[in-house]
Design brief:
By secondary structure, the protein is of the alpha/beta class. Helices cover about 35% and strands about 15% of the residues.
């Protein structure tokens, strides 16, 4: 067994996440990118691998004397580590992301004034809290979603359903003047009240209702929308449940759903399982997967909610490291709605989850 294979075996045993030699090489490559060392959260972003896999890989490398970390969170290769990567022919990660479109492939200049207005109007937004595993995206991400839906013909003059909305996509969509109506279903009373208050103040066609994904979609919303958008929790059970609720809301063939899926909390094995579930259980086609589309603002409770067994993890991020790919799915011939029964399931925590401490599952 090669040394890299041995590291992969240790990481997989500790995390329960399938880990290959290529995964370890990729993480080491990301650690090499910084000339003066690398910051853990930047490595998580660059590696595009589950947070726990990255943490354990760095932990094993440290145990074996290949890396060391300083008090400021920088991780550096030791002389033995430098010799190791030289012998293994591992090179620094190459990264060619477009700084203008932030890898979305969209020109948002038309929305510049609206983005500023949105930020001014939502300065008093509720803070993200651990109870519902919240964390909202940047304003440019919000309007990237608006632009993408509009470009695909899924927003203007359409009825839009937003399942969970700490991102306040509903208000942004309303402010754009494009959708006919926006309905929000959200479990957090603070957000329900905030969205309704702002919609009234700004005279927007937006209405929010309290709702838990585990409940049946209210009958008045079944088959009533052209498009849904959501940022789902990432256990397989939660992903399937949220897809059921979103798809149950659509009118029929040719309607669309938008949602994000990370690599920080979802391995390639989970991506595979999720994609097979989408295509085998539902009459949909996956039309788009845009990597790195959704950029999240660092949330206040991050360090208190994650593992604290490694010092290099318990360091404040220096960039918006948590990102997700944007999926678009479209219903195809034969689509006739989906099961809308109530269903209890684990929404937030599995062995790939970022959250280390239990979250509230109360309604």
């Amino acid at each position: 067994m090669t040394r890299i294979a041995g590291i992969a075996e240790k990481v997989e045993k500790r995390t329960g996440i399938r880990t290959t030699e290529k995964d370890i090489e990729n993480i080491i490559s990301c650690l090499l990118k910084g000339r003066e060392g690398s910051h853990f959260w930047e490595v998580v972003y660059l590696a595009q691998k589950p947070f726990n896999m990255v943490a354990e890989t760095v932990g094993v490398l440290k145990e074996e004397g290949l890396v060391e970390n300083s008090e400021n969170g920088m991780i550096r290769f030791t002389s033995a580590g430098q010799e190791f990567v030289k012998n293994e022919k591992i090179y620094p990660k190459r990264h060619y992301a477009c700084p203008h479109c932030e890898r979305r492939g969209l020109d948002l200049r038309e929305f510049d004034d609206l983005i500023k207005r949105f930020e001014n109007e939502t300065e008093d937004r509720p803070k993200a809290i651990l109870d519902y595993d919240q964390g909202y995206v940047t304003s440019r991400t919000v309007f990237g979603r608006i632009a993408l839906m509009a470009e695909r013909g899924d927003l203007e003059g359409k009825r839009l359903l937003v399942l969970g909305d700490d991102d306040l996509v509903s208000l942004a969509a309303g402010m754009s003047g494009l959708p006919e109506e926006v309905v929000v279903l959200e479990i957090d009373d603070r957000l329900v009240n905030y969205i309704n208050k702002k919609a009234k103040e700004l005279n927007l066609p937006v209405k929010a209702f309290k709702y838990d994904f585990r409940e049946s979609l209210p009958e008045e919303f079944v088959g009533a929308f052209d498009t849904f958008t959501t940022d789902p929790p990432e256990t397989i059970e939660a992903l399937e449940l949220v897809m059921k609720r979103g798809l149950a809301s659509l009118k029929g063939e040719g309607c669309a759903g938008y949602f994000g899926l990370t690599k920080a909390e979802s391995s390639m094995k989970k991506w595979n399982e999720f994609q097979r579930m989408l295509l085998n259980k539902f009459e949909v086609a996956i039309t788009d997967i845009i990597e790195d589309f959704n950029h999240y603002v660092n949330w206040d409770y991050l360090l208190e909610s994650i593992r604290d067994d490694y010092s290099f993890v318990q360091v404040e991020p220096r960039l918006n490291w948590y990102r997700s790919s944007m999926y678009r799915i479209e219903t195809v011939s034969g689509f006739a709605g989906v099961d809308n029964k109530p269903q209890d399931c684990e929404l937030y925590v599995d062995n790939e989850a970022l959250i280390y401490k239990p979250v509230s599952l109360t309604k």
